[in-house]
Design a protein that fits this description.
Blueprint lengths: L5 H4 L12 H12 L6 E5 L6 H13 L13 H8 L5 E5 L6 H8 L12 E6 L6 H12 L5 E7 L7 H4 L3 E4 L5 H14 L6 H10 L4 H14 L6 H8 L4 H13 L2 H13 L4 H20 L14 H9 L2 H18 L5 H13 L3 H41 L7 H8 L7 H10 L2 H16 L3 H6 L3 E6 L3 E6 L2 H9 L1 H15 L4 E6 H14 L17 H10 L9
Parallel strand pairs: 1-4, 1-5, 2-3, 3-4, 7-8
Antiparallel strand pairs: 6-7
Helix pairs in contact: 3-4, 5-6, 8-9, 9-10, 9-11, 10-11, 12-13, 13-17, 14-16, 16-17, 21-24
Length: 566
């Protein structure tokens, strides 16, 4: 084969060519110049970040005839022989296909022999985490007491699978994912040297699809060059990487914002028709909204954007999309991505997700914001109740001193302290005259469903409230706390919401009257003692008409054996 892949042709031959790993190459270069080379190294990091390339460069620099040097000359016999693989003293061992202890022992048996062509024997063990436990045990003894002429370089993508006894005997260097900008600069150099006409936006798309691996980026670039005719365009890069164009993502985002389900499903159909991978599409959408969130919250961090390019359409879209809605979109897309991993029909989950994304209501965001306000409101109410209790206690303590001549100072103090919520007693008495058990039971049976249909801020006011009397056109609600009762009765939106909800379940528009628990007891006793209530009236009082099942129980077992617990 006369043609070689780009990642093989442009494999780094010097430390300066290793892109994005300056923290590793600088340390190794300083150690070479100071002749402080250790007997074992561990290179760990993601795929395609230069671990094996750096290991071969280090082997050449150690054995270079011009040593000590910070870079191999690549001209002497040792450097050329190591590059071509003709020097047996530098052995590259693949642990993935030679993981058994017998194969490791064959290699270690030759360690004790002196090198024949260069100064140091260098063993580069790639994918070292694939070795068996027995093979690691065989390697451990040699790493602990190696000959002076032997250097081990271990490379792995999964360092957590290597025994700690091995790691502790090595100098560890962690290779990082290469930034998209560094990958683009390297690819620009390559296309300039090879006289390939390439769109810079296509290089950016390839760099982002490579996910920090230079080898992956060069492989995708190789494919794009083969796919294109005269110039590598952004469309070529999108086809090769399987990614979705930003214009298409902007179109879908517009459909979500305008709640256009038909447009969203048509765009998805077009996407799948062109053979795009559903999993790659959902990932592109997540990164799209992730970049939108970063742009809205930290617009100066343009380098952190992974998927989008800042064009006018994206900027307008970001300005018109609320931050809270972006959180919801990312959350729903992430759940869909997890569900798609365990199904044979990802298209169905995608279509359902598109419909849900187009139906996200802004009221949901308002409710999520109001939930926090309700929590603050409840905390404030509790604080005010505590302060009110302290004030009442202090007032009762000071009352006898302030009214010393009076024989009974407690009554004036009680009358003066009653300046809170004043319920409409007249209206309540009129409702009690018309109240029936059937009307009250009808509302109680729908009370839970009614609360579930209210906004969280409205439902919170009914946490410790209950209906106590009802007629055909009015309802009395008892509140445990006077302050909550006053707050509820002063809010027109709250009263209208309850009236609408009850009308939905009962078919009646009822007048809502609120009363604190302490005052309700007094009003009810006063009404019952006046004798104005009817036999069918219902005021949540045990002295009302006996229920049918209780009367039947007394007939069956005898009145003296039936105990009624309210």
């Amino acid at each position: 084969m006369s043609y070689q892949a780009l990642y093989r042709v442009w494999r780094p031959q010097k430390f300066i060519d290793v892109v994005g790993q300056e923290h590793v190459t600088t340390t190794l270069q300083n150690a070479l110049l100071q002749q402080k080379i250790t007997h074992a190294y561990l290179f760990s990091g993601p795929r395609g970040t230069g671990k094996t390339s750096a290991a071969k460069i280090l082997a050449k620099a150690i054995n270079c005839e011009r040593a000590p040097v910070s870079e191999p000359c690549n001209e002497c016999a040792a450097c050329l022989g190591i590059t071509n693989g003709t020097i047996s003293d530098v052995l590259e061992f693949d642990a993935a296909s030679n993981s058994r202890v017998e194969e490791m022992r064959d290699v270690l048996d030759k360690v004790k022999f002196a090198p024949t062509a260069v100064n140091y024997k260098v063993y580069i063990i790639d994918e070292v985490h694939m070795l068996s436990i027995s093979a690691f045990n065989a390697l451990l003894k040699t790493l602990e007491e190696p000959p002076r002429h032997v250097i081990f370089i271990l490379a792995t993508t999964e360092p957590h699978k290597i025994p700690l006894t091995i790691i502790s005997r090595c100098q560890r260097f962690d290779f990082r994912r290469i930034t998209a900008g560094s990958i683009v600069n390297r690819m620009k150099l390559i296309v300039d040297e090879t006289n390939v006409d390439c769109d810079e936006r296509a290089l950016q798309m390839i760099a982002r699809a490579a996910e920090g691996g230079m080898r992956d980026a060069l492989s995708l670039l190789d494919q794009a060059i083969s796919y294109s005719e005269t110039r590598v365009t952004i469309e070529d890069a999108l086809t090769v990487t399987g990614s979705v164009s930003q214009g298409f993502l902007n179109k879908l985002a517009t459909a979500f914002r305008e709640k256009d389900v038909a447009s969203g499903l048509e765009s998805l159909e077009e996407l799948l028709f062109h053979g795009k991978d559903p999993a790659r599409f959902i990932e592109d959408m997540i990164l799209f909204y992730r970049d939108m969130l970063l742009y809205k919250t930290a617009p100066k961090l343009e380098e952190s954007l992974e998927r989008v390019m800042l064009d006018d359409d994206f900027r307008i879209m970001a300005e018109e999309t609320p931050t809270g809605q972006i959180y919801q979109l990312i959350d729903l897309l992430n759940k869909t991505q997890q569900e798609m991993r365990w199904t044979n029909h990802p298209r169905i989950f995608l279509e359902v997700a598109i419909v849900k994304l187009c139906q996200i209501e802004e009221t949901q965001i308002a409710q999520s914001g109001s939930a926090a306000n309700v929590d603050k409101l409840i905390a404030r109410i509790e604080q005010l109740e505590n302060e009110l209790g302290q004030l009442k206690a202090n007032g009762l303590a000071l009352a006898p001193q302030e009214a010393a001549p009076a024989p009974a100072p407690q009554k004036p103090a009680q009358r003066s302290s009653r300046k809170g919520f004043q319920p409409p007693v007249g209206k309540i008495n009129e409702v009690l005259k018309q109240a029936t058990k059937n009307d009250l039971n009808q509302i109680k049976s729908k009370w839970g469903e009614m609360r579930a249909n209210l906004m969280k801020s409205h439902a919170a006011l009914l946490n410790e409230a209950e209906p106590v009397a009802a007629s055909t056109d009015a309802l009395i609600i008892k509140f445990k706390h006077e302050m909550i009762c006053q707050m509820a009765m002063d809010r027109r939106d709250f009263l209208e919401a309850i009236t609408t909800a009850l009308n939905k379940f009962t078919g009646k528009r009822l007048l809502i009257l609120g009363v604190p628990e302490e005052q309700w007891l007094t009003i009810r006793e006063s009404f019952l003692s006046s004798g104005q209530h009817s036999e069918e009236g219902e005021t949540d009082d045990p002295g009302q008409e006996e229920e049918p099942h209780i009367a039947e129980a007394k007939k069956l077992f005898g009145e003296e054996f039936v105990e009624i617990i309210d």
